[in-house]
């Protein structure tokens, strides 16, 4: 990549049941002038086209797990999402020489993710941008460490600059006007920031970034047939990014017993009670809060 | 029906993506003593068995629309849900001489339905029970008029006594511990009420019932290709059962224009922003608030 960002891509419907991204892309397609900036071209893509309108996260396979190098090179993978990933790789990639310089992948979550920015990599450009975004709205959070290096399976791994935006809480297959408008605000702010950088007129960025670094995920308690045996405890429900201390309740079994967090180390959960993660063995992701020097 | 209620049926997974009902039925199956009352037998049923674990509302057809008399009698209808409806009709019905005397059908909604009781019919028994339940928790609401007379297509129409319970807001395919516990509390209270009635020791019921009578539904604004053009306005989101006056905003278009409620008559919306109703042309159901004399 040159120092100049020439092409920015806004992606919606990577998960077709997350409606904000779809309708925001449709809005931008209807009013393309909203995306016009002097110093780069901005385009939109609907990723899982065939899934749109089905109410599903995916048809055959989660599209946002189809971008690993081996899978992209494996012509025997012929599910709809595998084929679509190869198309998107041609359109936006390939990873070693991407046509898109910056990908914004629009997502939503049933968890209280507020306005989460997930930088694709820890490239200084991404971190500075994230730090800038934290100054714009008190609900902006920066979540690091969902691994999007070159061999990551996520769509946004096609190019090192960019981010996913995860807003919530919102049910799948519904819209929420506040979260829609806030997502649009974040997108416009990213475009403005890139435009300013391109022009050598950097916008003011704080010297430290407060970020949440993913550590590991924990699953629901399950029985021998893999059925969950507990729910997120009411005291933890909706408390994404809040500190979790030893002794705090995390689960409540169906028979009413609480299960506590037992480690000495204070952590900050994210993706608490995300619908798509029940089947993946993830009740929440634990993170640590970090202050990162930007300069 | 005799004056005595002999068999009560608790139904979960009529919509398999509404997890509270499923896990509550599983809990009752694990601890059947929870359902034991002196004066009647209480059984549980998982309705859309094949849909459980799919994350879907239904496989071929909404099971809760398969119980119309013509459909039940039509042997040419061979979708999974049509077949399952006939099985449930055999198990709990038929409508003119049902084996179950009282059906509790457990549902949840992405709308802020709080703890909504939807009596199957306006039979005095149902209304008295609903009035009793309103005294137990401030979040209990009574929604009337989803038509469940003899030819209604809902599962609960198999027997005139009973109700659906619609709790929310909750995303599909997740649990919420508070709503789970509140749903269980409502179920236990219904069983206790029936037991007391059976024994001739009626529990105290208020003399008037505050209920919300369904009037009609309104759809999202749509374009010529049936795409929605607006979202629920932030001022209306989550305001189920609150009064809507002339001039109050109800929708916000994607380009930011608000659309107001224009009728003179004050109404009380319910099912505002329910995920399953987007495809059915329903943004919300408008109701009127009524005070019903119970005695």
- Uncertain runs of chain A are none
Spatial gap, N to C terminus of chain A: 21 Å
Order of strands across the main sheet of chain A: 2-1-3-6-4-5-7-12-11
Helical content of chain A stands at: 10-25%
Most residues in contact: chain pair = A-B, 38 and 38 residues
Instruction: Give the overall silhouette of chain A.
Output: globular
| SS elements, strand count of chain A | 12
**Overall pLDDT level of chain A:** 96
The percentage of residues in β strands of chain A lies in 15-25%
SS content category of chain A: alpha/beta
Which series of helices and strands of chain A comes N to C? EHEHHEEHEEHEEEEEE
Q: Name the quaternary structure.
A: homodimer
Entry summary:
The first copy, chain A, has helices at residues 19-30, 69-73, 80-92, 124-134, 177-198; strands at 7-12, 41-46, 102-108, 114-119, 140-144, 162-168, 208-218, 230-232, 249-253, 258-260, 268-270, 284-293.
Task: List strands and helices in order, with pairings.
The structure is a homodimer of 295-residue chains.
Chain A: E1 7-12, H1 19-30, E2 41-46, H2 69-73, H3 80-92, E3 102-108, E4 114-119, H4 124-134, E5 140-144, E6 162-168, H5 177-198, E7 208-218, E8 230-232, E9 249-253, E10 258-260, E11 268-270, E12 284-293
Parallel strand pairs in A: 1-2, 1-3, 3-6, 4-5, 5-7
Antiparallel strand pairs in A: 4-6, 7-12, 8-9, 9-10, 11-12
């Amino acid at each position: 990549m040159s120092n100049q960002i020439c092409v920015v891509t806004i992606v919606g419907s990577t998960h077709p049941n997350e409606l904000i991204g779809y309708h925001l892309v449709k809005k931008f397609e209807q009013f393309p002038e909203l995306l016009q900036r002097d110093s780069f071209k901005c385009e939109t893509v609907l990723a899982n086209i065939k899934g749109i309108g089905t109410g599903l996260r995916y048809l055959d396979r989660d599209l946002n797990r189809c971008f690993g190098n081996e899978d992209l090179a494996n012509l025997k993978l012929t599910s709809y999402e595998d084929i679509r990933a190869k198309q998107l790789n041609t359109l936006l990639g390939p990873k070693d020489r991407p046509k898109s310089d910056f990908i914004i992948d629009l997502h939503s979550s049933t968890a209280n993710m507020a306005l989460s920015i997930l930088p694709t990599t820890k490239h200084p450009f991404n971190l500075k941008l994230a730090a800038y975004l934290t100054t714009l709205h008190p609900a902006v959070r920066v979540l690091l460490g969902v691994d999007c290096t070159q061999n990551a399976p996520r769509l946004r791994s096609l190019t090192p600059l960019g981010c996913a935006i995860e807003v919530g809480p919102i049910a799948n297959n519904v819209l929420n006007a506040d979260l829609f408008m806030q997502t649009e605000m974040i997108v416009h702010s990213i475009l403005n920031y890139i435009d300013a950088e391109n022009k050598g007129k950097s916008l003011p960025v704080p010297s430290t970034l407060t970020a949440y670094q993913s550590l590991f995920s924990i699953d629901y308690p399950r029985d021998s047939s893999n059925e969950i045996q507990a729910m997120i405890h009411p005291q933890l429900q909706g408390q994404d990014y809040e500190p979790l201390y030893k002794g705090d309740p995390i689960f409540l079994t169906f028979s009413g017993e609480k299960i506590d967090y037992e480690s000495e180390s204070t952590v900050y959960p994210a993706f608490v009670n995300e619908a798509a993660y029940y089947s993946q063995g993830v009740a929440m992701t634990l993170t640590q809060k970090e202050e990162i020097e930007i300069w």
